Amino acid sequence: MRVSLFCALVALLQSHAAFGASSNDKSKPIKPCTIRSPSTDRFFDLNPIHISLPESGKKAHKDDKTDDWHAKGYDYGANFTINFCGPVVEELDDVVDLEKSLWRNVSAFYEMDGKQYSIGLQNSEPVFRGRKLVLNYTGGSLCSSGHSKRALLSHEAKDLSTKKIIDDDDDDDEDDDDDTPKKKPTKGKDDKRRKSTVISLLCEKDPLAPKASVAFVAASEDECTYFFEARTSAACGGIEVERQTLGPGGVFGVIALIAILVYLVGGCVYQRTVMHQRGWRQLPNYSMWASIGGFIMDMFIIITSSCSRCIPSFRNRGYSRVSLGDDNGRGRGRGRNDDENRLIDQLDEEWED
């Protein structure tokens, strides 16, 4: 009966643990800078390539990277500084068209003509575009600020071509003026657009390659969007490794506690229903535990008595009492004999007279 109760309790605990684990997997929030692929169910963790400064009072490990990731702009005319899933660790002095309270959240920027331009604020949620793992940064400096010479030349060429087309259409000018309404300028709307960054993360399987390498791909014509490629082993994906809440000692303790509960509950039920025992005798193996308790009590008495003999104060106090008692008894006996002798002598003298 005890075996069946034990098996039933273990099965109940296992089913409860499995149900709790499944419900936790569904409702458990994903850690920052991690994502699970919807197609392959592989787990991607970009935290290893996130750069962060060591805490105050602590030294960085010799293998830890303490500076941001850099990418050469080549023909763009500026180099880029980037961090993954966090702000750059480099201090920013003056970011163009961005509030000072947001400087600490800049995750990508470049410098040109002594000025700093943000191309995106912090974002710790990578996404999948099909099978491509992508990290987006938005909310940088205004798109109208920091145009390079290449962009200015392209805009001037556009204006010239547009002007040429309009000049060639001389015959229809009057009709256009009469029938076609003029378009409102959209300069103000364009000025509110802000720079953004798109980083495509590619798997790097070479074990000798650096932890990550960032390359600048291109920028949009209006310099509002910047495209990068990052090769890293963190983009290869793998199996999610969860930290155990209980160590080996905790697991052993839980198993031992379950075994003790099964022993006590099963034994009490058996002794009460089958053996018809009542009171303390309902405990399993009551006679054994009672004998063990008596043995412990006897050993306690023996140890305390032997310890009291070893203490000098207790030993001298006992002998002094005995010796005082003996002396007092002897003195009382001597005094009693002297009185009797005196009484006998007095009677003898009276008898002679």
Notable traits:
four-stranded antiparallel β-sheet; 11 strands; 15% strand; disordered N terminus
Please give a structural write-up.
The protein is α+β, with helices and mostly antiparallel strands. It is 42% helix and 15% strand. The strands form three sheets. It has a five-stranded mixed sheet with strand order 7-8-9-11-10, with no helix packed on it. Helix 1 crosses helix 5. The radius of gyration is 47 Å and the shape is elongated. It starts with a helix and ends with a helix. 15% of the residues are buried.
Topology overview:
Layout: H1 2-27, E1 34-36, E2 43-45, E3 69-71, E4 80-82, E5 108-112, E6 115-118, E7 127-129, E8 132-137, H2 149-168, H3 173-179, H4 187-191, E9 196-203, E10 212-219, E11 225-232, H5 248-273, H6 286-310, H7 312-352
Parallel strand pairs: 9-11
Antiparallel strand pairs: 1-2, 3-4, 4-5, 5-6, 7-8, 8-9, 10-11
Helix pairs in contact: 1-5
